[in-house]
Design goal:
Layout: H1 3-28, H2 31-58, H3 64-83, H4 104-108, H5 113-137, H6 139-166, H7 171-182, H8 184-198, H9 203-227, H10 232-257
């Protein structure tokens, strides 16, 4: 199979599996599932970014100082995009274990389902570019990046389903529209392949931005969810789940380096 084939297949599987699993888990198990997935995905995202994407980026002919500025610009850029509601991360829903006031997510959904879907399409497109860049470095790194994206997307999609349902979508309509929004990752993967394949010098910077994306999501969105826990008895299992995500990334990274 060609690299482009791997990229398209990875983005298709990532989208289909994350949306389908999010629908099944969210509709049936909701709070119990999302509280377990969020810390695992945080650990996996951080480990993938810091132990693999960044080393691959800096282990190139690119200027390391410029790469540092690109990472900083990426983190600040994602912050600005989220502030402008052009990208969106949420793992909240009515009836979860987070102690929001009743109606919190109905208020979140007040912006309407369509803006949420548009923001997600933009975010998924960027995920597709990330996966394409990883596959262009190494097929096994592409698999690791796909795993990291899926780990975040499942709890993210669960939150989206709950917001869309609160906004008045039926379950079937929420599933179909979430799936269509997710398929923008395939478009991002194809665009990323042709752009980065033709301009290999851009690849280290694409990996740096991918790392910035993973770090931003983990530190600004996922880990703060756990900081709300005051009890040590509640916090320790979450720390263990974060470490589980790191272990998963470490095992996958060892496979990447195995020749």
């Amino acid at each position: 199979m060609t690299i482009l084939g791997y990229i398209i297949l990875a983005n298709l599987l990532s989208t289909l599996l994350s949306v389908a699993l999010a629908a099944w888990l969210g509709f049936n198990y909701l709070a119990r599932v999302i509280d377990k997935l969020v810390p695992v995905s945080a650990g996996l995202l951080l480990a993938t970014a810091i132990t693999h994407l960044l080393p691959e980026s800096f282990n190139s002919e690119a200027d390391p100082y410029l790469l540092g500025w690109v990472i900083l610009a990426g983190i600040l850029g994602f912050f600005l995009l989220e502030k402008l509601s052009l990208i969106h991360h949420t793992h909240h829903h009515e009836g979860d274990l987070h102690h929001h006031a009743h109606g919190h997510d109905r208020h979140e959904a007040g912006r309407g389902g369509v803006p949420i879907l548009i923001g997600d399409a933009f975010h998924n497109f960027a995920d597709g570019v990330v996966i394409a860049g990883a596959f262009l470095v190494d097929v096994r790194l592409g698999v690791l990046a796909t795993l990291a994206v899926m780990a975040h997307e499942i709890p993210h999609e669960i939150g989206d389903f709950m917001i869309l349902l609160n906004a008045g979508f039926t379950r079937r309509r929420a599933f179909v529209f979430n799936l269509l929004s997710g398929l923008s990752a395939v478009v991002g993967g194809i665009v990323g392949y042709f752009v980065l394949e033709d301009s290999q010098s851009l690849l280290p910077y694409a990996l740096a931005i991918a790392a910035a994306s993973f770090i931003y999501i983990a530190l600004s969105d996922l880990l703060p969810e756990m900081m709300r826990r005051s009890s040590l008895a509640k916090s320790l299992p979450e720390v263990g789940l974060v470490l589980l995500g790191v272990v998963i990334a470490a095992v996958a990274t060892s496979a990447v380096h195995a020749h």
